[in-house]
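Internal tracking record. Fields below are filled automatically when a chain is submitted to the structure queue. Please do not edit lines marked as system-generated. If the sequence contains nonstandard residues, flag them in the REMARKS field before resubmitting.
Queue: standard
Priority: normal
Entity type: single polypeptide chain
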Amino acid sequence: MTRSLVAGGAGFVGSHLVEALVASGRQVVVADNLCTGRRENLARLGAQIEFLEVDISDEEAFGSAARGQFDEIFNLACPASPIDYLRLPIQTMMVGSMGVKNTLDLALANNARYLLASTSEVYGDPQVHPQPETYVGHVNPIGPRSVYDEAKRFGEAMTASYHREFGLDAKIIRIFNTFGPRMRVEDGRAIPNFIHQALEGLQITVAGDGLQTRSICYVDDLVEGIISMMNSDSQGPINLGNPEEISMLDLAQWIRDLTGSESDIAFIPRPVDDPQVRKPDISEAKRVLGWEPRTSAETGLKHTIDDFKLHA
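SYSTEM-GENERATED OUTPUT FOLLOWS
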């Protein structure tokens, strides 16, 4: 039986990945320090998984906790929303540097396959649209978002170096905006914000003029892409996301309609270094993995809204 370690497995995306791995027959160990993850995300799995409450950035603690043979390591550990990584700037940089190194060392010791979940944020505020994997980005290295952007860029460099230096089967994916059940109301990203505000009858707050665009991918589709990448011969990086683009204003209005809300739209100041556009070129994912999103944005939004209603 394949034994898998999922770092960050109690988080939004991580918990969906853990469920899919368990369903595939793998033995799964989750490592998470719960700074943004939640145990309840994994509650339905019960004793089917092993849970390690540990910070992967702490070499000694992680080395003591992560025992036994692993066949594959998925590293999704990192605060992923601006509110979280601005609240935890040093921790974010440490998990993107020492956390990546510690998990890579574990993979090397076990001769395990390794996957780093990187992000579209490595492209910064892009000057190329849509963004192919060959684009090197347009990033402010000292801005407030740099704690996340540069941590992920460093993590990619470390992962690629372990592949070149040691021949480790180490892979990189770049995740674009993803949504679905289990998103935290307080994580500050647009979709959970808009849904919460619409359901509560609050003003729906749109940053700037709302004309900035994102491409939103349903979490089940993303998880399929992650597993396909781990099972592939590719090292990447490979973009995983939905190439259908929507403005933030249109998204807010759409969510208001889907919830039947009468909330007003209000405009608030736009965050520093907030990208104007974000859209993946997924040609490589189609060619190498045979992957592309299958869930429509409307279907995904309805599932997510239902989840918010259930946990209101």
